[in-house]
Amino acid sequence: MKITDIKCFEVAAPLITPFKTALRTVEKIQNIGVYVYTDEGEIGIGEAAPTAVITGETRKSIVHAIERYIKPAIIGLEIEEIAFIMERLDQCIYKNTSAKAAVDMAIYDLFAKRYNAPLYKVLGGYRKELVTDITISANDAQTMVNDSLKAVKRGYQILKVKVGKDPESDAERVIAIRKAVGPDIQIRVDANQGWSPKQAVRIIRKLEDANVNIELVEQPVHYADLEGMHYVTAHTETNILADESVFSAKDALKVIQMRACDCINIKLMKTGGIYQAQKISHIAEANGIACMIGCMLETKISVSAAAHFAASQKNITLVDLDGPSLCLKDPISGGPTFESQWIRMSEDPGLGFSIES
Ligand SMILES: C[C@H](N)C(=O)N[C@@H](CCC(=O)O)C(=O)O
Ligand SMILES: [Mg+2]
């Protein structure tokens, strides 16, 4: 089955509430979708999220990377020769990882359809269900408490609490949420690089001393400050998860060698897709480091690709695939089902969507 064409389209989805982190505030999702066409009439689908503050990409840069660099590099290649396609995809342009991820997942969609199997089974088929957390945006304490109670009412048992915008009062916000939701709800905290290493140690120790029982703290300090990540990991009991510090397999090796974290957040938008994401998962597994599968502000299209990947990997034990839960409606039907915290894989071939284009 040969690749004959690639086309980009707009993916828009309103959010239930504005998404606020230490890095940005977003009112609605405006992503780029991708169709990959073949000579046998099969079409693969993918999605890229323009997260300029993390990957450096915009909607324009994604479309340009795909049309000017990726498309000429892979047109005419055989879907069955996926490792060769992925080498071309990786080499045709530096970085631009979300543009690459959209095309990578569309090719994996076609690859699994070629063998008439759901993608998670083609990739290894380790599990059929995932439990995701849901993000609580960074706001004042009362708003975050209210949002947390609403999330629990919707059936979520794991909260990913965004902090890092106002370090001096972050611990109080998290303590207020713990008091409101009780001891049985899992709380993970994401500072999105908002703390200095010393601030991070002070805040995390405060939470430890108050017995808040935080599962992990994600990316406490600046992505490039690996010494700072090591300092926080070494001076606190709580697990530290590297997110923005790890895009590639090389980055994963470095944080592991430097003991700069206890676990790693893999996102297809950072790795450039499933092919490169597998390398990080395997390196981490070989070093006894658990991984999270995460997402940016993405709809059901690309979050489904991440779910297929996560379901295939034994080492992905933490799930932050709440993109569809944050949207008012899905832009596509079919694929895995997202029902409150449960993500259940479908047995339809590929990613599982019925594509009319
Ligand atoms: C949406 C997801 N729960 C999440 O928080 N992802 C990122 C931030 C993504 C963004 O700004 O779009 C993360 O830092 O983990
Ligand atoms: Mg994060």
Automatic annotation (TrEMBL):
Residues binding substrate: R24, T135, K160, C295, L297, D320, D322
CC cofactor: Mg(2+)
Molecular functions per Gene Ontology: magnesium ion binding; racemase and epimerase activity, acting on amino acids and derivatives
Active site feature: K162 (proton acceptor), K267 (proton acceptor)
Residues annotated as binding Mg(2+): D190, E218, D243
DNA-binding listed as a keyword: no
InterPro entries: Dipeptide_epimerase, Enolase-like_C_sf, Enolase-like_N, Enolase_C-like, Mandelate_racemase_C, Mandelate_racemase_N_dom
Pfam family membership, one: MR_MLE_C
Domain Mandelate racemase/muconate lactonizing enzyme C-terminal: 141-239
Domain of life: Bacteria
Keywords: Isomerase, Magnesium, Metal-binding
GO terms under biological process: peptide metabolic process
EC number: 5.1.1.-
Gene3D superfamilies the UniProt entry points to: Enolase-like C-terminal domain, Enolase-like, N-terminal domain
Cofactor binding note of this UniProt entry: Binds 1 Mg(2+) ion per subunit.
Family the entry assigns: Belongs to the mandelate racemase/muconate lactonizing enzyme family.
Protein name: Dipeptide epimerase
Provenance organism: Ureibacillus thermosphaericus
